[in-house]
Structures are given as C-alpha cells and as structure tokens.
Amino acid sequence: MSDPQPNILLITTDQQRFDTCGPRAPAWMRTPHFDHLCHEGIRFDAAYADCPICVPARTAIMTGKTVFSHGMSGNGDTSKCFGDEDTLPSVLRELGYQTAAIGKMHFTPERRRHGWDEMILPADYYREMERSGLPTQPMRHGLGQNELYPTMATVPESLTLTSWIAERCVDYIRERRDPTKPFLLWCSFSKPHPPLDPPEPYYSMYRHCDIPTPVESAWCFEDAPQAFKRFRESWSLDLLSPEVLREARSAYYGLVTQCDYNMGRIFAALQDLAEFQETLILYCSDHGDTNFGRSSLRQQDVLSRRLGSCAVRAAPAQIVAGPMSRQHGGHARDARRHSTDPVRRSRRQATARRVRWPESARRGTRRDAGARVSGGDLQQRAVLRPDGCALEIHLLSRRRSGAVVRSGN
Fold first, then answer.
1. How confident is the model at residue 214, as a pLDDT?
2. Which of 79, 87, 222, 242 has a CA-to-CA distance to 348 between 20 and 30 Å?
3. The pLDDT of residue 168 is above 90
4. Residue 373 lies in a domain
5. How far is Cα 243 from Cα 61, in angstroms, rounded to an integer?
C-alpha cells in the first residue's frame, strides 16, 4: 500500500523584510512560530524575490518562472501572462491534491482562479464586514494601500483582515476539505504591506523599542538626482518626518508579529487533527522592503528584493538537496541551483505519483542530522526555490542518491 501524499501549506506575507524574523531579527522581535519553523526545518538565508513588486513575484510563485520568462514586470493583468494550466495548483491537482487559496492573490481579473479549486479573497472579507451591520468597520482611517503614515486599525484584532484570513484557513483545514485527499493550501496574508494599521496590542508592542534605521545612500539627501527628487515629491514622501517614519517602522514590525501569531492558529488546527507532522509547511514573503529609508520609500526598488529567511518544514522528514548546516534547524547556504522552470520540469518528471519517505521516518524514528540517504530511499523531494521565490516540487522519476535528510521531532 502506498504511503499518503503530504499536505502542503504555503504561507506568504506581503512586503516583509528579511531581518524581521529568524536570527537576523532584533532581539525584541516576537515571531515564535516562524522561529519554530526555523528550528525544525530549513532556513534559506540567500533568498531573493525575482522582482520587488507584488504581481510579478506572485506570478513567479504560480508559474515557477522568472520575470524574464513570464514577462510580467509590473502590477498588470495576470490572465494575459498565464492561464489555468501549468500552474502550481494545476500540477498538484493532477497528482490528486485538492487546492485552495485564501487571502491576497492579486490576480486580474480578481476572480480568475488560475488553476485553484477554490479561492477566498479579501474582497469577501470586506463584503462580509459591510453586511454584518457592525458599527466598527475596517479601513475607516482614510489611509490608502500605499501610504506610509502609521495609524491604528479601526476594528479590534479579531475583526482584522489578518485574523479573518487565518480563520478561513482554520475552517478549511477543520471542516471544508475532503480528509481522504491531500491538500495544497496557500495562506496569503496581505500584511505587513501598507496601510500600516495594526490593532492593539500590536500597535504599541514595539513603539518603545530600539527600532533599527535603514542604511541610507548618498542619494538620500539634497544631492540626489532630480528623477529621485521628483519621484519622492510626486508621492509627498519628502514630507515624512523622521519621527513619523520611526512610528511607521514600529507599526510595520507590529504587523509582522500579528501575522506570526495568527499563523499559530493555523498550526494549532493541524495539531488538533494530528496533521501537523504530516504537512509540508513553507513560509516566505512575495518580496522585501527597504525599511522606509529616504532613498526609496516604495516597493519598486531593486533593493527591496531581499527576502532572506524563507523557511521550509517538511514532515515527517526534512529533505533538501545540496549543502546545509548539520545543526538542528539548519539552513541552506545556496539554494539557487535549480531549474528556472520547476512547474514544467515537474510535469515532465511526474512518473512517481506517490511519496516514499525513508523507512526510518515512516517508523517515526530519528536519523542523525545530515545523514545520507541511500539511492533507494527517495522518490520525491519538495523544496522552496528562492530564485523568484517559487515553490518547486520535484517529482523524481527515479530515485537519487546524495540527498540530505534531517528528521523532525
């Protein structure tokens, strides 16, 4: 009897910096669930988004292609770039997965599924809140999606979009899926992308901390090229005082922690159903951020491509190809050696339809960190490619030797 396919949970945030979680984060930063992923899994420290803009980066996740291959270099119409075939969910659906995407997709048209069986979007949240008749409504502070002035959410934490996305994911895991089939679930948080409006307690959590300042270039000040000056002035970015920017950074860090705490609710749902150890969990951001430096205060800057700490936690065994730390919670030093078109590659190699985990992992026993697997142990390998921040699923047609296996708890 074949072993079951693992569930796959892909968690993404929007515009999260590489040094807001993991070992590069400030000591006061609270990201317990991301830290847990790093401890049990693999951390990619040299991860870069292929493009520092939302739609091109998400197109890379969906297609496994770089911007030079998929052609989407700005926030354009995704339906003109790729369809419903040869996408991440369509490939996995062919392998027996049920697929759902919950949260920010940034597809155009908005309801274009691009291969997903089901999509639940922020538009559903705003419609639900409007019809609820509640006296408090989200986004009543008047700030737009690209403004950097900080403020507090106009609804309590339990009614925020971040909490709602986590709740819909929990509901899917508990109630709304076929428990006899594996699932691919994309939990896509829209934060810490502006507006910078965390609810309490996250709004005040880091206001009195030593917030790191950005590294400024020589073009930050009066000797900047005229094109840079005109850009800042066109968005009124030159009016932001250092005090306002510091408060903005504090709110930004608060939003990161809010995403992390809500991620814990999803983990709890998996644990309650005894599925946590049977789920491959991948965490990354679509692209980074420049920490609101004066040289670049918007996301369309090449410096904001840095993702840094992408994490992968595989179950029941951690599997990655290539060199990595032999310590528990190791990290891949260079994960940019894979094919730039993983979706097509996986379709060509999809002759092995089921996972055969190492025998010791199936028995629940531990293997030493960094132990080598014999050539007959593996048929499937799943890793997160930082090249374009694309999820790469390798379905190997023949077993390969030399893979590094690390067992989980």
1. 75
2. 79
3. yes
4. no
5. 36
CA separation for the pair 246, 258 (Å, rounded):
19
Domain contains 291: yes
H and E: helices and strands count for the chain: 11, 13
* Closest by Cα among 190, 199, 292 to 254: 199
| CB distance 91 to 40 below 8 Å | no
Burial 339-357 (b: 16+ CB within 10 A, else e): ebbbbebbeeebebeebeb
Helix, strand, coil % over all residues of the chain, rounded to 5: 30, 20, 50
pLDDT reported for residue 232:
74
Does this model's pTM top 0.90? Answer: no
257 touches 207 (CB < 8 A)? no
Angle at 40 between CA 37 and CA 46, to 5 degrees: 60
CATH code for position 154: 3.40.720.10
Residue 400 CB-density burial (10 A; 0-12 exposed, 13-18 middle, 19+ buried): middle
Please determine, for residue 261, whether its predicted confidence score (pLDDT) is greater than 60: yes
> Which pairing describes strands 331-332 and 390-395: parallel, antiparallel, or unpaired?
unpaired
- Among residues 199, 171, 209, 202, the alpha carbon closest in space to that of 187 is found at 171
**Tokens 């009016």 appear where?**
239
**Identity at 401, one-letter amino acid code:** S
Assigned token pair, 315: 């179950």
Residue 371 lies in a domain: no
* Higher per-residue pLDDT: 222 or 107: 107
- Res. 396: pLDDT tops 50: no
Q: Which residue has the higher pLDDT, 9 or 68?
A: 9
Nearest alpha carbon to residue 16 among 305, 385, 311: 305
Domain that holds residue 303: 7-334
Neighbours of 388 (CB within 10 A): 27
Q: Rounded to whole angstroms, how far apart are CA atoms 120 and 111? A: 9
Beta strands at 183-192 and 98-103: parallel, antiparallel or unpaired: parallel
Q: Indicate the range of 104-108, 170-174, 380-384 predicted with least confidence.
A: 380-384
**Residue % of the chain over a pLDDT of 90:** 41
Q: Does any domain span residue 368?
A: no
354-375 residue pLDDT tens: 333 333 333 333 333 333 333 3
Q: Which residues face 404 on adjacent strands?
A: 320, 372
pLDDT at 80: 76
